[in-house]
Amino acid sequence: MDNAQHIMTLVSSITIEKPWGIDVPNYFWFTGSSAAAFIISSFAHVFGWKKYKPIAGIALLMAFVLLVAAPLNLVDDLKQPGRIMNFFSYGWENFATSPMKWGVLLLIAYPILIFFEAQALYRPYFVKIAQQSRGLTKMLNTLLAFGNMDLSEKALAKDHKKGYVLGAIGIPLALAVHGYTGYILGAVHANVMWHTPLMPIIFLASAMVSGTGLLILLIPLFQRFLSERKSVDRDMVATLARLLSWFIVADLVMRFLWLTFSLTFANGEKYALYQYFSLHFQDTLWIDYVLCLFVPMIIGFTKLRNIPIVVYFGGLVTAIGVWLFRWNTVIGGQEIPRTTPGFLHYTPHVFGQGSIVSVLSNWGVLFVLICIVLLVFPWDEEMEECYKGAENAK
Each residue of 122-145: pLDDT tens digit? Predict the structure, then answer.
């Protein structure tokens, strides 16, 4: 009987049973967190906010590795990796009206820009290491310095100007890289949950939350176990916690506007939304909003932000919460019926393409990339020098 009902549902529906799977919300989370990390690094490199300078370098590197790992989710979602060439071979005549085509260029340009900005930031350190070493280490650091071994004030000023210009260009580019993902969803007329011009802004607001939460977890870890200081900057942790709270406020405002407009002015489709949120009300309220947004927001706006372990908890739940929001938006939006008698359901496979293991493998690639970048770039020396500069300024 269940099989017969399943077959009838397929026959009576024009909605495909296989929606975007688990790879897609994971991709959205990676690109969003990358954009947030880049924006936070730009607080120091572009806007000149000195209190963020010690973490600006490591935030820039995290933006790079997140963005490099992100497209692998799309390759896996294609099922046949060779299909990625279709993005480059076809459809350019529709570039002006194709958000996916915009994404092709953005995903190429953005990591290249981040790399060159990081190279400008770390070039003096590459030169110093090359001068103090021999063999392969000397060769590698000379290559990363692009052969420019000049450490004069004029050369350093040129590096600073280059980093500033690339950072300024990178801010709208970072916003566009993640904004286009929301644009893709917002342009889908047939999906009542997605179809709103607010979708790119909602994605950007929640991305700032997840990216800040991720940095709250990673930066203290690097400082405590991998840096020269061997200690966590508690003031920086508190600063990031407060920043996270303001990003959560912006995220909540965007979600409020989205839900109130969709549930009120979406014509007949709003009843499908009513039914969907009724089915998921308890999970959405207590997990997505209370635990993953309101609790971290309270932590950041109160003296609880001075207790590192509490802030780490807030960073963890916000990062997880935004991932769940991506899941609920991408997968949940596809569950809402168009012509079917009931909601569609999607359960990811444990193994194979588009599976839980493939997403965990992508996280494994991210971990490897982080290790490589931390080994190649002298981030700890740069961070320590920034802290010494701040202490001398005091």
Answer: 999 999 999 888 889 899 999 999
